[in-house]
Each structure stands twice: as structure tokens, then as C-alpha cells.
Amino acid sequence: MDNLLKIQNCNKHFNGIIALDDFSCEISKNEIVGLIGPNGAGKSTLFNVITGFISIDSGQITFNNHTITKKAPNKINKFGISRTFQGLRLIRQMTVLDNILLSFKKQPGEHLENVFFKNKKAKEIESENKRKALKLLKDTGIEDKANDLADDLSYGQQKLLSLLCCLASDAELLLLDEPIAGINPAMIEKILFIITELPKKGKSVILIEHNMDAVSQVCERVIFMDTGKKISEGTPEEVRNDPKVIEAYLE
Amino acid sequence: MTYLLHIFILIGIYIILSLSLNLIAGYTGILSMAHAAFYGIGAYIAALMALNFNSPFILNLFLAVIGSSILGALVGIPSLRIKDDYFIIATFAFQIIIFNILNNLVSFTGGPMGLPGIPQPVIFGIKISSHFSFLVLTAILCAITYFICNKIVKSPFGRILKAIREDEVFTKSLGKNVSAYKVKIFMISSGLAAISGVMYATYITYIDPTSFTLMESIFIISIVIIGGAGNLKGSIVGAVVLVMLPEILRFVGLPNSIAANIRQMLYGGLLVVFMLWRPQGFIGEYSFNRNNENG
Ligand SMILES: Nc1ncnc2c1ncn2[C@@H]1O[C@H](COP(=O)(O)OP(=O)(O)OP(=O)(O)O)[C@@H](O)[C@H]1O
Ligand SMILES: [Mg+2]
Fold it and tell me: Interface pTM (ipTM) of the complex?
């Protein structure tokens, strides 16, 4: 299988706490990998490390054969990695539509010179993006919310919106940090459906999730981590029955 | 009549100052207390050019804008590393440094004596000297500034500024180079503030450092906050109200010396009242006391 993301021997300490302990893994193109483990295992830290928000003590990360280890978050996004946050980040005082518009890459209108000159191209791309954004909203059934503030959406709709922002950025790898935690079953179905469709569109996903049923439903492969270490890896069934995993949960 | 025109010209000068500061403070969410420094830099560059080289007004205006925006980058760059309250203090420091340079570089700026006899503008052979022609020129420059600010805030570029104001981490995660945007908006804002400085210098024909103090910076930020941060029309409303207010006090019959003191108290009091009961100002979209601490 084609390799997309390669994490080699990553270590991260937070004054005494070991968040990542010689962690290595690989993610291939067009696959959905579940990342599970108890609270404080280092799952979100791994996302922060991949996306450049936290710098690692040692180790190496490559994406599509580019080293991204010491790069800034905005650069890493440009390589094609997009993420959601466990604490749900959105621009709450902006409309739903504007949140998605903000997420598109390579917008000529974001360059200062295009604010005043060469208006035509920038305008074309902006209206093209608007069309795409409205389609995303329509496909997921919240087009009537397009002009509401993100803050006014329900929690589940906000989680959906943060996923749509990832989709708009057209990344090859999506890092989703507990995208269905704390939302109603109908919304869970909707979000899981979007996720399962992603490999067909040439995208890969790492999914952090505590809900094992959901993980089994969408992931072919699961990585279990605890205290910063990779403990087990395999199909959801294999990992669930791994004695080391059972032991970690019993502790 | 002359008196009224004079007030309108002052309002115009403060509209340009508050519109430009709104780009940084209201739209990008970075409080800066150094705006009067850029106002002063614009005034001094234009005045020194006109006095020493007798250079044309348009060139002086251009150089003032460029010079001020370069210094704007100098203030913008620390904002990348110094956060919130500490950055406000850094801008305080910059404001005070600029004041001291203007005040102490006597051979160059005239120090506390200031620069008298600044030539009035001549544009395409037309000499601007009457109050009315100054008002027209100020109105034109206000309109241009409004046009520029409006273009910026309505564009995808402006969308990123607002995103930075609301959540920098999220904005970075979307691939936006937050640092570059902050420096750029500081440069634009400082450059526009210089326009006011040039107008003031050529209108009054005399400048000294006391017009560009920390108090003045606080006055400009008050206009932005009371008018409404994150709304350009708010800056216009704010400038009209805050410039007119002391004049109204004078009409009530207060002697000048008392009115001047009451003025300071009034601005301070208004600022507190607005912060407490209407933090978004008259028609603003952003209040500085809101925190986002999720994630
Ligand atoms: N920025 C930080 N500063 C200090 N310690 C941190 C930081 N981020 C994470 N940690 C610590 O690192 C460890 C791993 O945290 P992390 O958030 O990665 O866990 P997690 O697996 O995502 O847990 P959960 O399932 O609860 O979200 C925890 O002990 C946490 O307290
Ligand atoms: Mg987590």
C-alpha cells in the first residue's frame, strides 16, 4: 500500500509527564485508522505534534516523503493535513458559510494586492468557493444555517461544521479528534457516513474515538496507545482481544 | 462658521485615525496604544520634507505614509511573540519612545519648540489655504481611507483578520500565515494614520510633540471602542461624538480651562461606562472582554 504519513520514534515530555514514548506508526493512502486509548494516553498530543502545534523532543515525521517535523502549523496544513480539535474550534462570531470559505486553500483574495487589483480572478474563485461551500452544507442538510453565526448552531452541528471545514481545505489526510463525542445518534450517523466515504475520494483519516462501536464500524485498522506508547495494532477485533489492551484498561 | 469648519476638519482627521486603528484593534483584535505615534510620524515627515526641501505636498504625503508603515512593521513584529496585555505595554513603550525622540532630537524636530511655518498644501497648482478647501481635502482623504478599509474588511483578507481576532490557533490550523497578516495590517494601519498627521501638520501649520502623546493614543482607542470595534461606521460615529462632545461643553458656558479638565474625565468615564454596559460600543461587532478558552 502507498505510504502517506510516517511517524518514527517520536518522543514528547511535558515537564515529567511522558506524552509520547518512542511512538512510531505509518498511515497509508485511502485508509481510515482508529487511534484509541485511555484518557491521557497521548492521542491528542500526537495530533498536535503532527500538525506542528507542539514540537517534539526527538523523532521524525514525514508526509508524502516531505519531512514536516519542525514545520509551522500553517505550512503543514498546506502540505495537505487538516485537523479538528478535541475542544472544538470554530470562528464562532462568523457565519457558518464564512467558516467554510475561510477554510479553502490557495485563495487569491487573501493576498493583499488582490484586495485592490486583479479583482476578477479573486472574485471568480471566491464565488466558486461559495458554490462549493453551499454544496457541502446542502449535502449534509444544514444549508438553511449558512448565514447563521457558528455560535448559534447546536453542538452536534458545530462538530459537523468543523468536519466540513476540513473537507473544504481539501486535505489528503484528516486528523479527527473525537468528532462524535457528546452528540446525538442521528448526527453521529451523519458524521460517520461522511468519514466512511472519504477513502473513495482519495483521502485518509486518523480517527481518535472512545466509542469502540463507532471505531469498529468505520476503521479497518486500529492503533491502541497508552502512556505515550503504541501497545497494539491491527483490526478492531484483534486489538479488542489483545491481552495487553485488556490489561491496560484494567489498570 | 469658521469655527464649525474647524470642528469638521478635526472630525475628519480623527475619522481617518479611528478607521485605521479599527483595522488593528477592532478587526484583528490587537489593542495598540501607539496610534498617535504614527499620527505624529506622518506629521513630522511631511513637515520636515516641506520645510527642508520645499517638496510637493503629494510627495510628502506619500513619503509620510511609506515611512509610517515601515515603522508600523516594527511594532507589528513584536506582536507575534508578545501576547495581549504585554503587547499593550510594548505599544505604550513605543509610543513613549517616539514622543521622546520628537521631544529631544532638537536639532532635527525642534524639540518642545516644535516646527512652525509648515507650508500649506498645493495640489495640482491649487493652494489649499481656506478652511473650506481644507475641509474638502480632508473629506476626500476620509473617503479614500474609508474605501481602502472597506475593501480590506470585506475581502477574504479581512475574513482572515477577523478569524485571527476570534481564534488564532484555529486560523493557523487552516493554513493561514497569521504572523504575516498581523504585520501587514499593522503596516496598512500605520500608513493610513500618517495621512491624518500630514493633514494636521499642513492645516495648523505648526506641530510640536504634545499633539502626539500617549493621551492622544488613548483618545483614539476610545473613539474606536465607543464607536464600535470591528465596524467602520462605528469609527465615524465615534469620531463625530467624541470630537463634538467637549465643544458642546464649551457651549454650555464652561470656561476653557475647566472644560479641558472635564474633557479628560469625560473620555475616561465614557470608556468605563461603555466597557461595563456596552462593550461592543455604539454599533460595534467585537468587545475586548470576550475570551475564547476552549481546546
Ligand atoms: N500542552 C500541554 N502541556 C502540558 N501537558 C500536556 C499538554 N498537552 C497534553 N499534556 C499531558 O500529556 C498527556 C497526554 O495528553 P493528551 O491530551 O494527548 O491525551 P489524550 O490521549 O488525548 O486523552 P483524552 O482521551 O482525555 O483526550 C496528559 O497527561 C496531559 O495532561
Ligand atoms: Mg485527547
Answer: 0.94
Host domain of residue A103: 3-250
Q: Provide, as residue numbers in chain B, all residues whose Cβ is less than 8 Å from the Cβ of A102.
A: 156, 159-160, 163, 171, 174
* Res B293: pLDDT: 40
CATH number of the domain at A8, please: 3.40.50.300
The number of distinct structural domains making up chain A is: 1
A121-136 confidence digits (pLDDT tens): 888 899 999 999 999 9
Q: Which ligand is nearest to the CA of A176?
A: 2
HEC per residue, chain B: CHHHHHHHHHHHHHHHHHHHHHHHHHHCCCCCCCHHHHHHHHHHHHHHHHHHHCCCHHHHHHHHHHHHHHHHHHHHHHHHCCCHHHHHHHHHHHHHHHHHHHHHCHHHHCHHHCECCCCCCEECCEECCCHHHHHHHHHHHHHHHHHHHHHHHHCHHHHHHHHHHHCHHHHHHCCCCHHHHHHHHHHHHHHHHHHHHHHHHHHHCCECHHHHCHHHHHHHHHHHHHHCCCCHHHHHHHHHHHHHHHHHHHHCCCCHHHHHHHHHHHHHHHHHHHHHHCCCCCCCCCCCCCCCCCC
Q: How many CB pairs under 8 A join A and B?
A: 96
Which residues in chain B touch residue A78, judged by CB atoms under 8 angstroms apart?
175
Average pLDDT, chain B: 90
Domain ranges of chain B: 2-210
In the predicted structure, residue B295 carries a pLDDT above the cut 50: no
Rounded to a whole number, what is the distance in Å from the CA of B260 to chain A's nearest CA? Answer: 39
